[in-house]
Amino acid sequence: MASAQEQYTDEMKKKFGYYATWNPGVPLKLGDIGIFKNNVFTRISDLESLQITFEHREDPTKTPLEHNSQGSVTVTTKVSGTIAPQGSVLTSADAGIIVEFGKENSTLFKAYNTTTPSIKDTIRLGNEVIKLFKEGVWNKNWAIITELVEAENATIIISNTSNGKIELKANANIDAPTFDIADAKFDFSTQFSRGLETKIVSAENLTPLFKVMGMKTRLFLPPIFKTKAMKAFDLVTPATAKAEHKDDIYFGYISEDERE
Fold this sequence. Notes:
This protein is mainly β. The chain has one domain. The chain contains three helices and 14 strands.
């Protein structure tokens, strides 16, 4: 069975077309350099440290994003003055939200006021990266965060059991008729939780989704060589990139299978 990390990153990629930050609370920035393997980006440096400059392309439109694992997440809103569901620790005076998970590794994801800034000129960036590779400065396995989803507030809850549950109490604006689980204005506190892998509730300034670009090659190996021991990129070195393979390398979006 897939791990919580594998399930979460796969689901988010299928839903939004972006890779998911793991762990979801790890901060990322445009221009971060890292290793991208098995859907996970591990930061090691940034473009500024290599004296590569770039312009931001800002996104003025704030958009909500939401995803629940299909058929396995139940969300119950309880308003103040009503009887709590059976088995709940919330009192009749409490207002809050109850989330229950029916399958292992199920996810609730909700991001509030998201924007998507990106690097404005990835053609120039790619030319600089390839130049540094030919000079022996750039590692061909490095990837760059070139597009990023930033959320003013977000809630991400992942259950690692088939009966995961969390009960959140609203400590502010408790007279509201509805409650947004990602909105920090309700000042949620956890009253009960069970079987959760990850619990991030209405956290501010998260970067939960991203796209990466890096060096790629048009070279192909014969089927006999397509083993874990050898890849087409193994033929590309700084020396060959300046000679016989100079037309076989380029800069583009990276997929998970290209860095495994």
